[in-house]
Amino acid sequence: MKDPESMRTFKRMELFSSLRIRGTKFIAIRCDGRCFHELTERLGFSKPYDLMFARIMVYTVISVMSAWRDTIRIGYTFSDEINYILKEPFPFSGRLEKLISLIASTTSSAFTNALMRYLGKTSLVQFDARIIWLSDLNDVVDYLYSRQREAWRNFINSVSYYMLIKKGIAPKDVEAMLRGMSALKRINLLAKYGVDIHSFPTWMMRGILVHLTRIKKIGFNPITKEQVKTYRRIFKITWSLPSFKSDEGRILIRDALNL
Ligand SMILES: [Mg+2]
User: Which end of the chain has fewer CB atoms < 10 Å from its terminal CB, N or C?
Assistant: First the structure.
């Protein structure tokens, strides 16, 4: 006879599996690399920014968006962070555990593939994920703008730290110099050392955006002998972004969501 204990399915103990996203048009899923400070050091990326690392992040975003083609409309990345904007209808009937765990695992796997593709190296890679509820276009713009502000803060902090070290100041002295210093004061301090903050590429300050766009193709129908217009969706990568709060930035986001 079977032991009744072994027949317990534990279905009712899946305490969070019934949580679903409901009543909203959009969500953001934000992935953040775990222990990427060590990972980037181990893999020999340069500080504070490395174009190859940024390319690997963009490749990761495109891989994940390809796998979730009708769901993820926008991918926005800076540093070791990726923000995906999803539009309803959400897959898996919006089941939260499914969405978070699959996006995090797809991102980790895509990043590992990218490491192999670009560097011929591999490493254990971990991304966490969280969900942010966004009710309309304004929410999406405000959210992306808040992450872009974070990209800017990151940029000022890391550039001021590493540029002063490159000027020959000891790391502990740089830390003491910069402690509690505002962004404006950091910019002025860098200027005194001959570092112009605006000489850096825009992607370092504002992040990189990936979205689907439609391109028109003119074909020829051999039966009717007529020209035919077809549309194809391709990924567009914007390395030189406007502020998401500007008209240009808003239009970019709106168009990507309406596609
Ligand atoms: Mg991180």
Answer: N
